Amino acid sequence: MEKLYVDLGKHSYDIKFTDSFAALPDALREINAPKKLLIVTDTNVEKLYADEVLTLLTENGFDASVYAFKAGEEQKNMNEILGICAACIEHGLDRKSMIVALGGGVVGDMAGFAAAIYMRGIDFVQVPTTLLSQSDSSVGGKTGVDFADSKNILGAFHQPGLVYINVSTLKTLPPEQFVSGMGEVIKHGIIRDADFFTYLENNSGMIKTLESGALISMDKTNCSIKADVVMRDEKENGIRAILNFGHTIGHAVESAYNFKMTHGECVGIGMIGASHIANKRGMIDDMTFERIENILRTYGFGTRVKLPEKERVYSFMQKDKKKIAGKLKFVLPLNIGEVIQTTDVNKDEIFAALDYITERE
Ligand SMILES: NC(=O)c1ccc[n+]([C@@H]2O[C@H](COP(=O)([O-])OP(=O)(O)OC[C@H]3O[C@@H](n4cnc5c(N)ncnc54)[C@H](O)[C@@H]3O)[C@@H](O)[C@H]2O)c1
């Protein structure tokens, strides 16, 4: 089985890549997982995969139960965290027990956060089932919930003990969720790896038809890029911030749409906005800018979006928790595979980028 080692000292873990759940019990044994497990999932993933995973774990000697909360970003709040903690108590989880997060980024972020605070922190593993979670959110240890109109404003760093990626789960993923995940995948190519970007340009057919080998290879490269950045900067004090490419404008678009557009689609639009700023500054040439827009189009992204008035979008940006000394932080491309962070992007440049990404009637 393909695997990747994330070296974070005593918080190190493996990411395993395969196309079924069959090897999950062995992967759990390898990390000396306790018998007592709570599988935390959402109602959509519960219907698709919870029985299979529960049966597999039970047949292999684990004392596992399932807790599912209603699917959707709206559920990513403290009430649902308390629901997960109540389920931990109800199922008798103690300090040595473990949570298995089975689902997309919402499940991973919430189950991870519950694991971070239940009994002052218990172990958890990630079994991500969306492309976004397989290529991004399950790696890195950021967990948390939304609060007071701000995304992920409450949370904790809590590294998983294992990430087990079964790419065959992507076959049941709604197409718009696949596109959303591709936003983070493409982002990784632009910020760190020109060869990977070219791979994505040249292999869109196999990737879009969900060929297992292509997905495993894509997920592995992705996780290695994310893991490499996280290993250099576990708590986002420096280089990890480049992962926010596309997010300054992307988060504002997400807020403008009241979280009704997928995260990845918003990041896609945000990457075009940031690339527009870089292009106007002469940091990237027209051809590089075109390649960025083209690859997004190839993988099904809308490259323009209806937006409220620019001042309103700008006001959403001001709520960005990643501001430095009150200044907005932007990640801008210097080339495919290389980006810089800056806080000197001015309002005129931002408004010009918002104009560029706005869909005309
Ligand atoms: N922790 C991090 O570093 C990090 C990074 C990026 C994003 N995130 C967070 O991730 C979340 C978005 O994650 P997401 O896009 O995976 O959303 P999600 O978890 O809401 O999943 C999207 C939808 O797909 C369904 N689903 C999941 N797996 C499925 C499958 N295999 N087949 C069919 N349906 C399936 C879910 O029930 C849900 O309805 C956001 O809350 C975002 O803030 C976290």
Key attributes of the depicted protein:
11 strands; 19% strand; 14 helices; 47% helix; binds nicotinamide-adenine-dinucleotide; three-stranded mixed beta sheet; globular; Rossmann fold; alpha/beta; single chain; Dehydroquinate synthase-like, alpha domain; 361 residues
What does this structure look like?
With 361 residues, this protein is α/β, with parallel strands linked by helices. It has two domains: 2-172, Rossmann fold, CATH 3.40.50.1970; 175-357, Up-down Bundle (Dehydroquinate synthase-like, alpha domain). It has 14 helices and eleven strands. It has helices at residues 24-30, 43-59, 78-90, 105-117, 131-137, 175-192, 194-202, 204-208, 212-232, 247-256, 263-280, 286-298, 310-318, 347-357; strands spanning 2-6, 13-18, 36-42, 63-69, 98-103, 123-128, 142-147, 150-157, 162-166, 330-335, 338-342. The strands form four sheets. The chain has a four-stranded parallel β-sheet with strand order 4-3-5-6, sandwiched between helices. Helix 5 packs parallel to helix 9 (212-232) and helix 6 (175-192) packs parallel to helix 11. It is globular, with a radius of gyration of 20 Å. The N and C termini lie far apart (50 Å). The structure holds nicotinamide-adenine-dinucleotide. Nicotinamide-adenine-dinucleotide (NAD) binds next to helix 2, helix 4, helix 5, strand 8 and helix 6.
